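Exercise 7. Predict the joint structure of the components listed below.
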Amino acid sequence: MKRTEIVQLLKPEFYQAHLEQTVLLMGWVKAFRANRFIALNDGSTINNVQVVVDFENFDEEIIKKISFHSCIKVSGKLIESQGAGQSIEIQAEDIEILGESNPADYPIQPKRMTMEYLREKAHFRMRTNTFSAVFRIRHAVAYAVHKFFNDKGYIYMHTPIITGSDAEGAGEMFRVTTFEPQQAPTTEEGEVDYSQDFFGKATNLTVSGQLQAEIGALAFGKVYTFGPTFRAENSNTSRHLAEFWMIEPEVAFFDIMDDMDLAEEFVQYLINYVLDNYPDDLAFLDKRIQDEEKNMPKEKRRPMGLIEQLRFVVDNDFERITYTEAVNILRNSKPYKKGKFEYDVEWGTDLQAEHERFLVEKKFKKPVIVRDYPKGIKAFYMRLNDDQKTVAAMDVLFPGIGEVIGGSQREERLDVLIERCEAAGIPAEELWWYQDLRKFGGAPHAGFGLGFERIVQFITGMSNIRDVIAFPRTPGNAEF
RNA sequence: GCCUCUUUAGCUCAGUUGGUUAGAGCGGCGGACUGUUAAUCCGUAGGUCCUUGGUUCGAGCCCAAGAAGAGGCGCCA
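Solution:
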């Protein structure tokens, strides 16, 4: 007999057609109540199926081994449930233990455990209801990314993980080398001689696929990347990882306004996809957050439930303001006038987290896109605006997690690009191929980077980014 | 990297002003229970109070250093 997956079994059109027939299930025991009722889960859905056991019909040794997260094979008759709480159940006819699990030694217990504890048991945490829901949704978002771009005719591009260019300008990089740390050959000046290294030059793990994506955009018109990204920053926060996944669309003939339209449509699409296809997992996470916040004082609770918030984001247009408008709003705000902000607001300096939070959570109460930042605080490749003071950059800010997307229209004018490179102290010759794109068939173009884990974090409502990636890499932690 | 907080049973936590034998709930184990839904009931075992040093007649509690973890900030996605 073929195994039936529980996600299949629980569909009314399936079980109505198979009532009173024998089915074969395999899965893990989530609960064994009253020596009679097994809650069985096989990971195909967050929902369990109830298996009813007449223990008189089974060897006591088998019954004893039915414990939390032991793995079993059950064949039995599919019948209408005689109890409340589920519509169908399985009357067990034969049970085989596939994998025992001694509850005295097993570190996971059928009770509430802290996220920190489960993080240390990363090889087991996916079996919990919460992480099972989170990682099913993570998959859904990844699939939706590809579906969104494919349906729009974008080309999926794989950009290199090992990069030789030292000028991507997005933070500290991890060095890639085959040299033994203590035995690296040196030059006459005593510096490490990377010309003898594997690639014949110094190489690093990528911090962004953007520059290479621009190559693709000027060939295919519309491309996107979706791959791992590495930052060797000593960041200790609930929204930073040393290894994360980033999505970077890059589009020829797009200006900054088109770029913002794409970003908004994209994020709303991802959220809608999960709302439409994973309602059970979302409902579980929503309830989990509500239970968790039940005992908190009102001011510490989230202003909206998880699903309510997701609906709110897809049903409302994002607020769009310029950096200059943001500065004016902030300087005229109550907290500013009352001296409640820790950092001053002044045109030319970057907005602090507290300022962004005020705009998103207090002023507009929805995602905000800020654009046209001062050129001094943004990267060299962002297009200089006509005012000569700002660049066509935009950040999409979300409640709770801050910046989800950072993007810009790229500088397509060679002379301006070279000027901005020099101002930033970047050796222009390293980017000879980047300049070539402007010399031969250049085009206006724009793109952005979306932090994959950050959008998964938002959709699942998880408060720490380390809990939406299977094996988080952060400063001091690379276990598993 | 900076600031703040936390560390007590397998897990989540309480532990008063420094005082004699360190507690609870859940989980485990043993038992009861054939319609349970975080099952329930009875019984039971389980401790390097993070580490080191100090103060004290006496330290889970006070002091110092260290370790690990979390939250906030910075860097950003």
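Discussion. Chain A has a mean pLDDT of 93.
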